[in-house]
Amino acid sequence: MRIKDWPEDERPREKLLARGAAALSDAELLAIFLRTGVAGKSAVDLARELLARFGGLRKLLSAAEDEFCAAKGLGRAKYVQMQAVLEIARRHLAEALPRKTPLSDPRAARAYLIGRLRDLEHETFAAVFLDTQHRVLGFEVLATGTLNAASVYPREVVKTALRYNAGAVIFAHNHPSGVAEPSAADRALTQRLKDALALVEVRVLDHFVIGEGEPASFAEHGWL
């Protein structure tokens, strides 16, 4: 049965308009993005099949181009559209970080950093630079390494902080393995950066390690 033949309150688009996007399942949201199904399958049926094939929405969204395009019902045009949607979402999260008001809600920082770093294939070390009143000045990727390590040089971090005229910084890096537990190397690096930045009076407010689930916070562990 075609979606337009379904009862109106069960159709994904009408359901979204009536109840909001949060009321839709992953398959229903994906079906709206797909717009059409394939022969013998509605857009919702196709969406369910794709979610099963990739193992969920996150894995579908982070799939490599060749894997994504090889799936029935997708292709390069859909891949381009999906990447555009993801980048819009990232930029929305970036704008949620208050640039003219103090960064008083740590949830905003976490949500932004998760969106930027969690699904990357390689370990990436980044920072949010803040002024002395903890207002956001900018976000920078400081290093991108292999699946196991990233090289971060304190001198370059200090130079970047000075370029922003920052008074404080929040660090974050991802663990592609999915385990958000900080390693001994993570703790040693953070201490080196903290000591280097202290020489130019820049405070390290936190360091988030991002994997599956909630990021691990150095500040909450008492490691800063």
Strand and helix layout:
Blueprint (H helix, E strand, L loop, with lengths): L11 H8 L6 H9 L8 H12 L2 H5 L3 H6 L5 H21 L9 H12 L6 E7 L5 E9 L9 H11 L3 E7 L9 H15 L4 E8 L5 E2 H4 L3
Parallel strand pairs: 3-4
Antiparallel strand pairs: 1-2, 1-3, 4-5
Helix pairs in contact: 2-3, 6-7, 8-9
Please supply descriptive tags for the structure shown above:
single chain, 224 residues, alpha+beta, 5-stranded mixed β-sheet, 5 strands
* H-E order: HHHHHHHEEHEHEEH
Give start-end ranges of low-pLDDT stretches.
none
Report the oligomer.
Answer: single chain
The tally of strands reads: 5
Number of helices: 10
Overview of the structural elements:
The chain has helices at 12-19, 26-34, 43-54, 57-61, 65-70, 76-96, 106-117, 154-164, 184-198, 218-221, and strands spanning 124-130, 136-144, 168-174, 203-210, 216-217. The chain has 224 residues and is α+β, with helices and mostly antiparallel strands. Strands 2-1-3-4-5 form a five-stranded mixed β-sheet, sandwiched between helices. The protein is elongated. The mean pLDDT is 84.
Structure in a nutshell:
Helix content is 46%, strand content 15%. The protein has 224 residues and is α+β, with helices and mostly antiparallel strands. α2 (26-34) crosses α3 and α6 (76-96) packs antiparallel against α7.
